[in-house]
Amino acid sequence: MSHEYPRFDLTGQIALVTGAARGLGQAIALALANAGADVALGLRDVNTGGELVRQIEAMGRQALPLQMDVLNLDQIQNGIDKTVEKFGRLDILVNNAGGGVSDLAENVREADFDQTVALNLKATFFASQYAGRVMIARNYGRIINLGSQAGAVALPTESVYCMTKAAVAHLTKCLAVEWGKYNITVNNVAPTFIETPGTEEALSDAAFKADVIERIAGLHRIGQPMEVAGAVVFLASPAASLITGDTIMIDGGWTAR
Questions:
Q1: Residue 131 is part of which domain span?
Q2: What CATH number does the domain containing 58 carry?
Q3: Where would a tag sit more exposed on the chain, N or C end, judged by fewer CB atoms within 10 A?
Q4: Residue 2 counted as domain residue
Q5: pLDDT values of the chain reduced to their tens digit, one per residue, 257 residues
């Protein structure tokens, strides 16, 4: 039995974060670099990554900006190929890119449905598949999906988004069971409302924000991006070596009530 103390550092690890340009993706990329990893940055527009590259390099880590619109599977594959080409391997994949169009269920348009499924579910599956092939060959990997509390609770006007995030939680279990024999863990983090550019508009409605804070039943506050990034770093680290197929709720107590 090992008596080593848990290690949370990622020194020498190679990570790829999709949707890294802003919000949660940016915080996660910085947190992984701070923990010691070199980070490939999946960007919908590769020209938006300059400042983030500089911040990571200022920590003494390497950063690789990649053109990676996750709606384009060729760009996902190409980004993973370039990561392996530069660094020799890929240890950690963070499937952060996602989104969706809000609408009442009776009004959802097929185009919006298809885009939300493609962004949250199809992209997560195929990025995991492409990265998984690299990890299987090396017999090591950490895949961390960005789900949402929306995968566990119903949010009005978010039926399609909620559906896809619930699917991500279950996909996480399926991949964890299939790939465990290759020393690959697959986990899901499920945040509540976090202060990011993506939630700014919704949270600018005072009544909506008050309702959200009330529903965050334990801590009664909106989360910060680094509070999500901490769980990602933990799941990527040696300290989480026995955790797989799990969803960690980062919801301030929303789902506890």
A1: 14-256
A2: 3.40.50.720
A3: N
A4: no
A5: 557 899 999 999 999 999 999 999 999 999 999 999 999 999 999 999 999 999 999 999 999 999 999 999 999 999 999 999 999 999 999 999 999 999 999 999 999 999 999 999 999 999 999 999 999 999 999 999 999 999 999 999 999 999 999 999 999 999 999 999 999 999 999 999 999 998 998 899 999 999 999 999 999 999 999 999 999 999 999 999 999 999 999 999 999 98
7: in domain:
no
End-to-end CA distance of the chain: 38
Are 151 and 168 spatial neighbours (Cβ–Cβ below 8 Å)?
yes
Note if the pTM is more than 0.90. Answer: yes
Catalytic-labelled residue, pool 130, 140, 161, 182: 161
Sheet containing strand 247-250, strands side by side: 63-67, 38-43, 14-17, 92-95, 141-146, 184-191, 247-250
